[in-house]
Amino acid sequence: MATGPGRFFRCACFCSENLYVARYGLHVRFRGEQQLRQDYGPVLRSRGCVSPKDFEQLLEELEQEVERRQRLGPESAARKALIANSYRPARLEIYNPLQDVALAPEFLAAAEYSTLPGADLEGLLQRLETVSEEQRIYRLPVFTPPFCQALLEELEHFEQSDMPKGRPNTMNNYGVLLHELGLDEPLVTPLRERFLQPLMALLYPDCGGGGLDSHRAFVVKYAPGQDRELGCHYDNAELTINVALGKTFTGGALYFGGLFQAPSALAKPLEVEHVVGQGILHRGGQLHGARPLGTGERWNLVVWLRASAVRNRLCPMCGRKPDLVDDEGFGDGFTREEPPTVDVCVLT
Ligand SMILES: O=C(O)CCC(=O)C(=O)O
Ligand SMILES: [Fe+2]
């Protein structure tokens, strides 16, 4: 069902900033031909956009991408309504409210610890793996193997159905938007509110971890003949959890650089292998990408976690005060409300 304009908004920059050109491995700002030539002429040439035809093709692609982004909200709501009316799930239990039995014991223990009155960061760090202390990247088991399996089966069933499918984000072409499938309410929102929120509040209090009030959740799929890797980017999120669901694969490790707000280039990226069932926690602003898939298929659940109290001050995508535009559902997590007083500081 379409939710229409509501509490959450997106920033107008969505249609003009951070347009991804996979062929040249570049994110660009786009306001028209002249601006594109002026701002990106040399770097585009250095990446192989040399002939007038190359440039014309790029222009056309960018214009199409802007139009696609402008249509995104209403089209997504229409898909969601159609799926709710006509799609027959294979694994109905996935649509039941999230049960503790779906969650790995380590995840339950870490989340439960985090809700205790005396809980602190040191205690939580004993209950998860620190991948990088400096970069504040952590990992822990999230779902049980049977739940991963059931979710994968359901996602594959949906993929093979004749239902309309949206792209998970502006860089991945294959996967599933969980809110379109109706999985936000039973699965992702409880996961965020009951489990991720207490964890993130201890791990990242300075990034809005204690004030997560919306999310965008999707599954990315990598397979031969489809997407195989993901370019370097930062997420439109304060915090991200990325859970490997399966299937069996080689390659596809995540690599991390510095924070986009303080780029130190990707001189020596940190490589982090995906482990099926486990989730990697990182700051949305941490530059990262995914290495090429070797063999098999890789499906990962990615939840971009948003804290309006942080993003209302500064849109992470354009770096300015957000220019609010109505949107469907959680939009891009901006609100008009005065931010509640939470312990946040803007990253610099
Ligand atoms: O492929 C992956 O595991 C990373 C996906 C990702 O970074 C994203 O979708 O934001
Ligand atoms: Fe990402």
TrEMBL record:
<keyword id="KW-0479">Metal-binding</keyword>
<keyword id="KW-0223">Dioxygenase</keyword>
<protein>
    <submittedName>
        <fullName>2-oxoglutarate and iron dependent oxygenase domain containing 2</fullName>
    </submittedName>
</protein>
<dbReference type="GO" id="GO:0005506">
    <property type="term" value="F:iron ion binding"/>
</dbReference>
<dbReference type="GO" id="GO:0031418">
    <property type="term" value="F:L-ascorbic acid binding"/>
</dbReference>
<keyword id="KW-0560">Oxidoreductase</keyword>
<dbReference type="GO" id="GO:0051213">
    <property type="term" value="F:dioxygenase activity"/>
</dbReference>
<feature type="domain" description="Fe2OG dioxygenase">
    <location>
        <begin position="213"/>
        <end position="307"/>
    </location>
</feature>
<dbReference type="GO" id="GO:0016705">
    <property type="term" value="F:oxidoreductase activity, acting on paired donors, with incorporation or reduction of molecular oxygen"/>
</dbReference>
<keyword id="KW-0847">Vitamin C</keyword>
<dbReference type="InterPro" id="IPR005123">
    <property type="entry name" value="Oxoglu/Fe-dep_dioxygenase_dom"/>
</dbReference>
<keyword id="KW-0408">Iron</keyword>
<dbReference type="Pfam" id="PF25238">
    <property type="entry name" value="OGFOD2-like"/>
</dbReference>
<dbReference type="InterPro" id="IPR006620">
    <property type="entry name" value="Pro_4_hyd_alph"/>
</dbReference>
